Amino acid sequence: MCCRALRGRRLQVPTLVMWGEKDHALGQQLLRGTKEYVDSLRVEVLAGCSHWAQQECPAEVNKLLADFLQH
């Protein structure tokens, strides 16, 4: 689906984005404008983690996932 097809549409399900603070592959600037398309957006920046946060910070990732899925 191209960007034009998304105009005026919003994601209506709760959404969690986890981002490694030291991710050199994908910068946090890629999140800019995301709130325009997501009604319930939660962004968590994982300190000390890079692009592979689930492998570098598994306890923190699992805690955030468990908390998010319980609500």
Radius of gyration: 14 Å
Strand and helix order:
HEEHH
By DSSP (H or I, 4+ residues per run), the number of helices equals: 3
Summarize the amount of helix as a percent range.
Answer: 25-40%
Which parts are unreliable, with pLDDT below 50 for 5 consecutive residues or more?
A: none
**Percentage of β-strand residues:** 15-25%
User: Would you tell me the structural class of the helices and strands?
Assistant: alpha+beta
Our measurement of the CA-to-CA distance between the termini, rounded to an integer number of angstroms, reads 29 Å
For the largest beta-sheet, the strand count, sense and barrel status come to: 2 strands, parallel
Give the rounded overall mean pLDDT: 90
Number of DSSP strand runs: 2
Described by the principal axes of the CA atoms, the overall outline is: flat
Strand neighbour order, sheet with most strands: 1-2
Number of domains: 1
Organism: Chlorella vulgaris
InterPro entries: AB_hydrolase_fold
Protein name: Epoxide hydrolase 4
Task: Summarize it.
This protein is of the alpha+beta class.
Give a written overview of the molecule:
- It is a single chain.
- With 71 residues, the protein is of the alpha+beta class.
- The protein has one domain.
- The protein has helices spanning 3-6, 53-56, 58-70; strands at residues 15-20, 41-46.
- It has a two-stranded parallel ribbon with strand order 1-2.
- The radius of gyration is 14 Å and the shape is flat.
Structural features:
single chain, 71 residues, alpha+beta, two-stranded parallel ribbon, 2 strands, flat, Epoxide hydrolase 4, AB_hydrolase_fold
